[in-house]
């Protein structure tokens, strides 16, 4: 059939889509798929569609899907052009800090070229070469670290790649979303992302959020027919990347990849650029501030040097170029921590690698630092605090509580009428189902059964461990006259009655009867069996008994006390029963289904594949329990589902409507209600008791409340079940009807209460300790759950959320006071039913949120959002967990939204900043710890790096201000800033957490910034001044050892022959040796003092020895590199001349660092001790960084 557009293609128009409010113009996409009828869909997409019942369509075959994937390519958007690696490397060279150094290097080259023949002109060249080397090294290192960080993040993203559920060959399987092809049948449900552009062919209360395309925030309820001429607003199309927020549906893929709506809207794809994180912005802002200060101070001191050296005239001995090198460039570079950006990148990369091992995925690494400063963790209960491995623990029916531990089928519990009703309700009103285990190894075919060969007629016993495949391998030739004969009355009575008419062939599931009880035999007419007079019962049926409908289209085998052959047959075999009439009917149905005069040849015998139960944990527990007493697959075949209202957190219930078996006299529809017990009971007027329906009275309501409180108080989740029979006049009679607005027609009252099923979900191992770690860290842990308050309270106490404070009832019980007389200020713990929050005023919220231990029960997603908003209004830093679709607003509103990687929906993961790959609360605590470690290590790096700036400035200022030889040469200062300091600074990225990192209160992000006055005080006024003082002491000691007094230093090293005050005359060569010796002592003392300081700064609070001095391998290597550079510059001939270093001097001139080191260690440990002892004192506020 011709269409307006080529299949799966689209045309773009330059016209705007007419959006209001200044929305970006988007290309108009021409769609026609929404207007196609089901017949047109079938023809245009070249698929087989069950037009009468689209929901029962089988979908593409695996071979067809594979062929289409090869022809049309993957369902993936073409990524935006990726810049080559050298562009990213070039960007590092264009970093503002590198540009500053590059400008200085160019100036040095220019000065070298224009000052040929001048004294010390080679220094210009040396500085330029060193700067070029450092620029290249720093840029390459930053490029490498950024690549490592991106590699870790991409690993996480690959772990979270999306999959889609498709129906192929009649079976639902999960495939990667990019493997979808045109014509695929895709199952979409609440919490999933639409994986391609779909035409909806079945909708069960399906609602999709299309705000990214239409701008409308309200979810759209999908239907099957076109509702608008414009495809964008037609409710029978669901677009790629839209979120399913409610219900379930089935759609046909009509467009994939770049041809989808999102693929055509270029403004939505690949256009966003990642900005700087908050943490990076704070670091870069600090460095920019330091850079401005460096430039300003360099200009000021350069001007002072020129004025002092040259006066206001240039000429004679005045050398502005030399002053530029000695003053401007040196002071400029000395004040800029060039290695800090690379250190930040390294810290973030190492943090990402640590998080990878701790099952925490962060979308932006600076989120970890925010997590480290959180003050409140608002956590879900199920799956986060608990194991999410629910089992049925108790039943309440017939007004009696029963434990399920010893319930067995052999105990005849299935004979209770009330129990059978409750089990059937649990089986039908349940979203779980069996699926093949995707992790099970593929099983090869074990052989084949060809009935045309007499040698291939094995006994049923030989097939006991196999099941028939779902599709015949071949159908060939005449069937012949085969019959199934049994060793007993069954064969004699039924087969003989049918004579030669019916006994063509019968296929039974292997192992139906005991091994060796039957055989396939060739015959030309009705035969008779021989042997025992009875057929053995069904108790010993093997586990592999399955439906045969996929083979014959008719025959069905069930397991239980009864087994029915043929959906429409009457043949029934009971335990130890005599043979009944009807085996011939079975034979006829089988032959008719396969076709007369043909036989099933080469039918493979395959081992039964292992299966798993798929669904949410609560449904899984009920499914597993009910399946012990009533085969759920058989029950669902007998009671097909006509309509469903899925469970959601707003309704707190689930309803299903079912059609009874055709053989049942009462054909009224069966409505099953499941949900929160109090919600279910409100819909009931009667209750089931020993098979009778009795009116609900005050006595029953009282017993219900008592039992509910007792079971919920043990920390168990309780579900209520009810049933109602619905007359045909109140509900459509056929499953073929397209239901619209059915929710209003589903009854909400006059149900019969069947009973309660309670589920136990024990806390995860490690969670109680993790909660205590949070409390020790000053972090409040709140539980927000949809469970009953008593259940929530019991679990909260088990996991230590409620532990240190008393609740109102506890105080009343201890003191004998009335609960109403207890004032709020005496209550430290509370369990709040969120319905009560509707009446809270702002002052009520403040009183409530002041309490240290809080649990919110019966919470809806809106409640979570309200709680989050009120907490943030109090300047709390909130980490909120969630896994459902409706949790996304709260996750977005929180400072840190945390989604569950296993149980979480795609919507929740999209809204969150952090995804826990193992759904474990302990991983949240690990993330908090890593956030604190990240902040600590960056703080330590800055403190260490800034310390050396004071001695460097002192080395220059003594020359500018007092006209005495500089403490270090220009190249020495540059080598410290650009070489020796960088490896130890970066090594802090690998520093382990201090032992008290989770014993401190969270930092106040508004006050405790990364760089604050106390840190600058340590770097500049404490450690910096200590190092500067000892360096000057070493400097003057060298001069003193050579008989040069401080008063002799004025104009020292300038004239050819210099007369000392003691009368000695020193030549210029001797003066140069002494000056170089003094500068070397200053230089060595500074570097070796920084070696000590790097270990002093390893901890902010904990004693250095307790934390470990040499436990950071990378720091040890960094220090070795630092000392190695020092040795090379001082002792390697030629290199030491370039740096004006002199190594041939007494060893004691290299040991002054021991004095500065001792003072640094002593002061550092004393400072940390006083901070630990007096953490809230003025001293701590002034000296703790």
TrEMBL record:
Q: Please give the InterPro entries that the UniProt record associates with this protein.
A: ATPase_P-typ_cation-transptr_C (IPR006068), ATPase_P-typ_cation-transptr_N (IPR004014), ATPase_P-typ_cyto_dom_N (IPR023299), ATPase_P-typ_P_site (IPR018303), ATPase_P-typ_TM_dom_sf (IPR023298), ATPase_P-typ_transduc_dom_A_sf (IPR008250), ATPase_P-type_domA (IPR059000), Cation_transp_ATPase_P-type (IPR050510)
- Keywords, A to Z? ATP-binding, Cell membrane, Ion transport, Membrane, Nucleotide-binding, Translocase, Transmembrane, Transmembrane helix, Transport
Return the Pfam families for the record.
Answer: Cation_ATPase, Cation_ATPase_C, Cation_ATPase_N, E1-E2_ATPase
Task: Give the start-end ranges of region Disordered.
Answer: 1-26
Gene Ontology MF annotations: ATP binding; ATP hydrolysis activity; P-type sodium:potassium-exchanging transporter activity
Q: Which Gene3D superfamilies match?
A: Calcium-transporting ATPase, cytoplasmic domain N (3.40.1110.10), Calcium-transporting ATPase, cytoplasmic transduction domain A (2.70.150.10), Calcium-transporting ATPase, transmembrane domain (1.20.1110.10), HAD superfamily/HAD-like (3.40.50.1000)
> Boundaries of each Cation-transporting P-type ATPase N-terminal domain copy?
32-113
Q: Does the keyword RNA-binding apply?
A: no
User: What's an example GO BP annotation here?
Assistant: intracellular potassium ion homeostasis
Superkingdom of the source? Answer: Eukaryota
SUPFAM superfamilies from the entry? Calcium ATPase, transduction domain A, Calcium ATPase, transmembrane domain M, HAD-like, Metal cation-transporting ATPase, ATP-binding domain N
Topology with regard to the membrane? Multi-pass membrane protein
Q: What is its main location?
A: membrane
Gene Ontology CC annotations of this record: plasma membrane
Q: Where in the cell is it found?
A: Cell membrane
Which parts pass through the membrane?
A: 93-113, 125-144, 283-304, 953-974, 1015-1038, 1074-1096, 1117-1135, 1147-1166
- Family statement drawn from the similarity comment of this UniProt entry: Belongs to the cation transport ATPase (P-type) (TC 3.A.3) family.
Q: What is this protein called?
A: Cation-transporting P-type ATPase N-terminal domain-containing protein
Natural source organism: Nannochloropsis salina CCMP1776
């Amino acid at each position: 059939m011709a269409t307006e557009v080529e299949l799966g293609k689209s045309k773009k128009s330059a016209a705007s889509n007419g959006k209001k409010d200044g929305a970006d113009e988007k290309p108009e996409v021409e769609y026609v798929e929404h207007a196609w009828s089901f017949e047109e869909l079938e023809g245009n997409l070249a698929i087989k569609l069950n037009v009468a019942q689209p929901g029962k369509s089988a979908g593409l075959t695996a071979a067809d899907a594979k062929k289409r994937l090869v022809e049309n390519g993957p369902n993936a958007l073409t990524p935006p052009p990726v810049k080559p690696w050298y562009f990213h490397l070039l960007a590092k060279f264009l970093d503002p800090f590198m540009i500053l150094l590059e400008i200085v290097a160019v100036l040095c080259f220019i000065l070298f070229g224009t000052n040929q023949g001048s004294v010390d002109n080679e220094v210009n060249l040396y500085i330029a070469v060193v700067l070029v080397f450092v620029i290249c090294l720093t840029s390459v290192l930053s490029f490498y670290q950024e690549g490592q960080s991106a590699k870790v993040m991409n690993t996480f993203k690959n772990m979270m790649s999306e999959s889609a559920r498709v129906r192929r060959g009649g079976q639902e399987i999960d495939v990667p979303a990019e493997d979808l092809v045109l014509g695929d049948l895709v199952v979409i449900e609440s919490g999933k992302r639409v994986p391609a552009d779909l035409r909806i062919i079945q909708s069960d209360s399906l609602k999709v959020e299309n705000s990214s395309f239409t701008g409308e925030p309200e979810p759209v309820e999908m239907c099957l027919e076109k509702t608008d001429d414009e495809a964008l607003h037609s409710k029978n199309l669901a677009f790629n990347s839209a979120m399913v927020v409610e219900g379930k549906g089935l759609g046909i893929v009509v467009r994939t990849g770049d041809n989808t709506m999102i693929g055509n809207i270029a403004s939505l794809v690949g256009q966003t650029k990642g900005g700087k994180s908050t943490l990076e912005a704070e670091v870069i802002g600090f460095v920019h501030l330091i850079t401005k200060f460096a430039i300003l101070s360099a200009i000021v001191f350069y001007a002072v040097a020129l004025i002092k050296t040259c006066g206001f005239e240039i000429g004679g001995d005045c050398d502005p170029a030399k002053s530029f090198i000695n003053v401007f460039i040196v002071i400029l570079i000395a004040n800029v921590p060039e290695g800090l950006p690379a250190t930040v990148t390294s810290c973030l990369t190492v943090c990402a690698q640590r998080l990878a091992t701790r099952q925490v995925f962060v979308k932006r690494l600076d989120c970890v630092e925010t997590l480290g400063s959180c003050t409140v963790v608002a956590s879900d209960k199920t799956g986060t605090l608990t194991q999410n491995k629910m089992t049925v623990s108790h039943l309440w029916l017939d007004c009696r509580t029963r434990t399920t531990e010893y319930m067995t089928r052999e105990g005849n519990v299935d004979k209770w009428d009330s129990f059978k009703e409750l089990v059937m309700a649990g089986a039908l009103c349940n979203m779980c189902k069996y699926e093949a285990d995707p992790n099970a190894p593929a099983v090869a075919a074990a052989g084949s059964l060809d009935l045309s060969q007499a040698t291939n007629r094995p006994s049923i016993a030989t097939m006991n461990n196999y099941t028939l495949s779902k599709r015949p391998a071949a159908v060939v030739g005449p069937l012949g006259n085969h019959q199934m004969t049994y060793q007993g009355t069954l064969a004699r009575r039924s087969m003989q009655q049918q004579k030669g008419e019916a006994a063509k062939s019968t296929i039974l599931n292997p192992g139906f009867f005991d091994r060796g009880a039957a055989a396939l035999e060739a015959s030309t007419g009705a035969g008779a069996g021989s042997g025992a007079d009875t057929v053995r019962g069904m108790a010993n049926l093997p586990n592999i008994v399955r439906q045969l409908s996929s083979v014959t289209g008719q025959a069905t085998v069930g397991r239980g006390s009864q087994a029915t052959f043929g959906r429409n047959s009457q043949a029934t075999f009971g335990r130890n029963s005599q043979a009944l009439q009807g085996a011939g009917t079975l034979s006829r149905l089988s032959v008719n289904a396969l076709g007369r005069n043909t036989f099933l040849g080469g039918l493979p015998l395959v081992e039964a594949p292992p299966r798993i139960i798929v669904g949410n944990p609560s449904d899984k527990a009920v499914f597993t329990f009910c399946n012990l007493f009533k085969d759920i697959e058989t029950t669902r075949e007998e009671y097909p589902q006509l309509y469903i209202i899925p469970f959601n957190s707003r309704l707190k219930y689930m309803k299903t409507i079912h059609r009874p078996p055709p053989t049942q006299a009462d054909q009224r529809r069966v409505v099953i209600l499941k949900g929160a017990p109090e919600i279910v009971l409100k819909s009931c007027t009667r209750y089931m008791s020993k098979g009778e329906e009795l009116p609900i009275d005050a006595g029953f309501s009282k017993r219900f409340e008592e039992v509910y409180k007792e079971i919920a108080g043990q920390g168990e989740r309780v579900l209520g079940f009810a049933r109602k029979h619905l007359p045909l006049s109140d509900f459509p009679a056929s499953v073929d009807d397209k239901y619209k607005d059915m929710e209003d027609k589903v009854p909400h009252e006059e149900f019969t209460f069947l009973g309660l099923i309670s589920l136990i979900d024990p806390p995860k191992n490690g969670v109680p300790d993790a909660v205590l770690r949070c409390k020790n860290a000053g972090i409040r842990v709140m539980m927000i759950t949809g469970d009953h308050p008593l259940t929530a309270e019991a679990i909260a106490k088990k996991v230590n959320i409620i532990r240190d404070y008393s609740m109102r009832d506890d105080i009343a019980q201890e003191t004998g006071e009335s609960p109403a007389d207890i004032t709020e200020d005496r209550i430290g713990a509370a369990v709040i039913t969120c319905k009560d929050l509707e009446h809270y005023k702002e002052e009520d919220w403040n009183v409530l949120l002041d309490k240290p231990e809080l649990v919110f029960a019966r919470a809806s997603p809106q409640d979570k959002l309200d709680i989050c908003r009120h907490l943030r209004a109090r300047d709390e830093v909130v980490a909120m967990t969630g896994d459902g679709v409706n949790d996304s607003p709260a996750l977005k509103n929180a400072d840190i939204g945390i989604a569950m990687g296993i149980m979480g929906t795609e919507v929740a993961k999209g809204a969150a900043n952090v995804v826990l790959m193992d759904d474990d609360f302990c991983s949240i605590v690990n993330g908090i710890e890593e956030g604190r470690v990240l902040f600590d290590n960056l703080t330590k790096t800055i403190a260490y790096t800034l310390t050396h700036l004071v001695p460097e400035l002192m080395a220059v200022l003594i020359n500018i201000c007092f006209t005495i030889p500089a403490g270090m040469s220009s190249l020495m200062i540059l080598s410290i800033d650009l070489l020796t300091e960088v490896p130890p600074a970066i090594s802090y990225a690998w520093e382990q957490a201090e032992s008290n990192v989770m014993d401190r209160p969270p930092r106040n992000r508004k006050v405790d910034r990364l760089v604050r006055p106390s840190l600058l005080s340590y770097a500049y006024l404490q450690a910096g001044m200590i190092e500067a003082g000892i360096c000057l002491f070493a400097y003057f000691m060298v001069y003193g050892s050579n008989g040069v007094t401080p008063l002799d230093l004025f104009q020292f090293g300038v004239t050819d022959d210099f007369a000392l005050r003691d009368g000695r005359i020193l030549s210029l060569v001797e003066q140069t040796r002494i000056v170089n010796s003094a500068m070397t002592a200053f230089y060595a003392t500074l570097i070796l003092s920084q070696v000590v300081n790097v270990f002093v700064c390893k901890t902010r609070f904990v004693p250095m020895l307790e934390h470990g001095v040499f436990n950071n391998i990378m720091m040890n290597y960094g220090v070795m590199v630092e000392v190695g550079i020092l040795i090379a510059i001082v002792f390697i001939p030629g290199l030491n001349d370039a740096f004006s270093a002199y190594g041939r001097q007494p060893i004691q001139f290299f040991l002054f660092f021991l004095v500065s080191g001792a003072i640094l260690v002593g002061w550092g440990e004393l400072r940390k001790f006083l901070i630990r002892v007096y953490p809230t004192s003025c001293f701590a506020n002034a000296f703790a960084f």
